[in-house]
Amino acid sequence: MDRVGGFVSPVPTADEPANPPMAAIGASGTHFRTAPVLVSASFAHPDVDAGARAVLSIPEDKLAAALGDLHARPAELVVISTCLRHELYAVGIDHERLRAIAGEMAGGVADLDLLPDPVELYGRESVIHLFRVAAGLQSPVVGEHEVLGQVRRAHTAAQRAGTLGPVLDQIFREAIRTGREVRDMLPAPDHGSVAAIAADHVLDTEPGRLVLVGAGQMANAVADHLDGSSWEVVRVTHRPDRVNGAALGLDALADELVGADVRVAAVTSPRE
């Protein structure tokens, strides 16, 4: 392995196999190697469209329960599920089994062929991909910071569900550490997230009435970005109790959309 700055390039040395079962080096220089096979499946933007991602998506507050309810859990499994990506990382199973788990967590997809094709990675490639995700390098807004918190919460959900084993625990901890170091090294992006981009476009127009549909993180980020502006923001969701401040139920959506100057939908799944 060749060290470049604070990181290590994934180039095998003469005495190291080109494709070991799993090998990676994080920002702290920690070297991971283990016999069990690490596999990952990524259903993410732009490779998988928004409709397919919505079918697979699991709200963060339900992720630990969904992991715990699996009929045949692998030895280790962590799932990152956001509006832009649904990714599964597992140890000791193959990609076919990982696709079956994705289908089960999506509510039981009987025909796995109905699932979109994920980007399937193995071993070191899976680790490098996770590090890039945590650093915001796989995001539409390169360097955005929200994804680091999403990776951290995925790690916590697996821990609560009992699917976080020693291999994935160490890898995710190092990915989070690497993400923090990259965040500190790089200048902040012009727009902190996709939600911020949407809100900034709104702020560039004449103030009016905006209907914001959703109660998740992305909707909250849009609302926070518009807080204090001249825009009148009306929240609509089927979970009004989860919103800080006033919100309307979905039965009011049709009437609210008619009178809106701008409409923003920020939902994580069809269950929203």
Outline the structure in words.
- The protein has 272 residues and is of the alpha+beta class.
- It is built from 9 helices and 11 strands.
- It has helices at 50-56, 60-68, 95-105, 124-134, 146-161, 166-185, 194-203, 217-226, 253-258, and strands at residues 2-4, 7-9, 23-25, 31-33, 38-44, 76-81, 85-91, 119-122, 209-213, 232-236, 262-265.
- Helix 7 packs parallel to helix 8 (217-226).
Q: Could you outline the blueprint of secondary structure elements for this entry?
A:
Elements: E1 2-4, E2 7-9, E3 23-25, E4 31-33, E5 38-44, H1 50-56, H2 60-68, E6 76-81, E7 85-91, H3 95-105, E8 119-122, H4 124-134, H5 146-161, H6 166-185, H7 194-203, E9 209-213, H8 217-226, E10 232-236, H9 253-258, E11 262-265
Parallel strand pairs: 9-10, 9-11
Antiparallel strand pairs: 1-2, 3-4, 5-7, 5-8, 6-7
Helix pairs in contact: 2-5, 4-6, 5-6, 7-8
